[in-house]
Amino acid sequence: MLIETEPTPNPATLKFLPGRIVMDAGTRDFANPEEAEASPLATALFDLGDVSGVFFGRDFISVTIAPGSDWRDVKPDVLAILMDHFTAQMPLFRQASAGFSVPPAEEHFDDDPADAEIVAQIKELIDTRVRPAVANDGGDIVYRGFDKGKVYLRMQGACSGCPSSTATLKNGIEQLLRYYVPEVTEVRAI
Asked: pTM of this prediction?
């Protein structure tokens, strides 16, 4: 089995491509060891001590290391854990009967029904234009709400905490949404 790695715009995050589907649907972001308890793979990665974030995408895993850690030291261990996990065909998540479950996605803001057409346009643009580009960088972007011209989004994976994420939001996503949806005045990360 070959696991490819790719850099991301976030120097603390590497994208690992195991050559198979990781998540059949959706994504999952683990920001700390407590959240990782739902997944044996995420737990093993956090157990390295240098890992500060794990993100499961459709066909990749993004791993973020803590400040002061060096990828030259951590990468071989991450690769070994991923190789062992996928070679043994272990489950990605623990069964709910073990006392852990995958929490549901966070609720988004209650959108005004009068804005339904605007919200549909925003979601369509995010799904077709933004999400694929963000996934290429080892992350995801999740719509959280629209209120009085402001679009609220959550950055995940490599994009969360990335030095260039603010620029991506303001110079890329905000401009795109404002161009196609004139009702959009601002994009904010939450």
From this structure: 0.70
